[in-house]
Q: What sequence folds into this?
């Protein structure tokens, strides 16, 4: 049995609380003889600033490069807000990891667990069974293109410029991630852009079309304008499987899709980079999309399910343990079906539990799901 090397970076606020539940779950798999892990813990964000004066030390980044995957909690909080120069803020901990590991593909699933369908802002029948995966380009586009500036003009006005830039290789590598993932899911991809008004949109559409014809003709491809995509996401979200888009549209539309499913405490993410020719490993970081929730930190109130769903993605996409990922997903669903809820997803008639109790319930459930003797 292969030993998976996991670097855990708990970070700040509720980060350590939710990450502890992910580790509890993985240790449970180990105790059941289903997998083997080697954990390395390190500091990131505010915790790293306090101990080392920087939000991400070069040694931590080096460890991340050697791990099979990084499990990340969250960073930041009032203790560090607005203090110190920009490059020494806690958020640079996660940005530094994304940059240092070359994480260009951001995977944001929007999955509606059946027991929570009634909690969506959309009608239950529209979201029940929803399972979308948005693949967002993370390192290019308008957030990084140059020039990016505010200048003062001769007439005294100020003018701001952001530049949307994409090359064919950037588009191809993100589209490839989407096509590959689609093959393991519903086998269809929607590619969203605005080729009607943007040159980057035209290149995006052409490049995706060519790649599809050359290498992925077995996957069904639909092109959709990004504005229509936003509308369709709230009109009939179940028409989508895998969706691929640039950094800006992905930022906005993945938040729309995610909120179809309820609380921030339920939403996982994965960020993937290239496969290293030296190690054969794909750089990967898994984290809940929520922040450090300072208002509930240290109170055993945080929902650990986003962190656990991120762990599910790690098992699936980095560790080649799809049956264990499926079991974790079923365990989460089973625990919700029993009516267990952390305060953020509580509803009348449900049982409110704390972070640790929710995490323990999921970890216990997995033996039943896999029908192994505990
Ligand atoms: P937040 O996500 O931390 O919290 C927003 C609200 O959602 C709060 O009311 C919080 O209690 C609730 N919430 C969040 N996660 C929850 C969970 N797992 N269970 C139950 N409730 C949960 O966002 P914020 O308040 O805007 O930011 C707080 C800090 O987190 C800031 O310092 C911010 O910079 C940082 N942050 C970090 C990341 C990251 O590390 N990737 C992401 C977002 C925000």
A:
């Amino acid at each position: 049995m292969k030993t998976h090397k996991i670097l855990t970076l708990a970070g700040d606020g509720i980060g350590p609380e939710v990450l502890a539940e992910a580790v509890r779950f993985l240790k449970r798999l180990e105790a059941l003889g289903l997998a083997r892990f080697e954990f390395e813990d390190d500091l990131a964000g505010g915790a790293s600033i306090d101990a080392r004066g920087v939000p991400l030390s070069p040694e931590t980044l080096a460890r991340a490069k050697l791990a099979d995957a990084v499990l990340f909690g969250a960073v930041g909080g009032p203790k560090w807000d607005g203090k110190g120069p920009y490059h020494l803020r806690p958020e640079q901990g996660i940005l530094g990891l994304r940059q240092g590991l070359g994480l260009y593909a951001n995977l944001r699933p929007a999955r509606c667990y059946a027991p929570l369908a009634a909690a969506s802002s959309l009608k239950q029948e529209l979201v029940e069974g929803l399972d979308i995966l948005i693949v967002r380009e993370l390192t290019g586009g308008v957030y990084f293109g140059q020039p990016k500036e505010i200048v003062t003009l001769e007439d005294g006005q100020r003018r701001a410029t952001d530049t949307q830039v994409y090359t064919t290789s950037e588009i191809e590598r993100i589209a490839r991630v989407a096509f590959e993932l689609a093959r393991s899911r519903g086998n269809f991809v929607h590619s969203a852009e605005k080729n009607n008004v943007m040159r980057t949109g035209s290149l995006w559409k052409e490049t995706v079309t060519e790649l599809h014809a050359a290498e992925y003709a077995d996957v069904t491809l639909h092109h959709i304008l990004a504005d229509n995509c936003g509308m369709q996401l709230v009109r009939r979200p179940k028409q989508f499987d895998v969706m691929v888009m640039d950094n800006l549209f992905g930022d906005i539309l993945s938040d729309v899709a995610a909120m179809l499913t309820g609380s921030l405490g339920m939403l996982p993410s994965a960020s993937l980079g290239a496969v290293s020719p030296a190690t054969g490993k794909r750089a990967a970081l898994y984290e809940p999309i929520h922040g450090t929730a300072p208002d509930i930190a240290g109170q055993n109130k945080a929902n650990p399910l986003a962190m656990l769903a991120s762990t599910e993605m790690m098992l699936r996409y980095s560790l080649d343990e799809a049956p264990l990922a499926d079991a974790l997903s079923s365990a989460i669903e089973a625990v919700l079906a029993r009516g267990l809820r952390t305060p953020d997803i509580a509803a009348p008639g449900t049982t409110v539990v704390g972070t640790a109790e929710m995490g323990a319930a999921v970890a216990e459930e997995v033996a039943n799901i896999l029908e192994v003797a505990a």
About this structure: The radius of gyration is 21 Å. The longest helix spans residues 15-31. The chain has a mean pLDDT of 95.
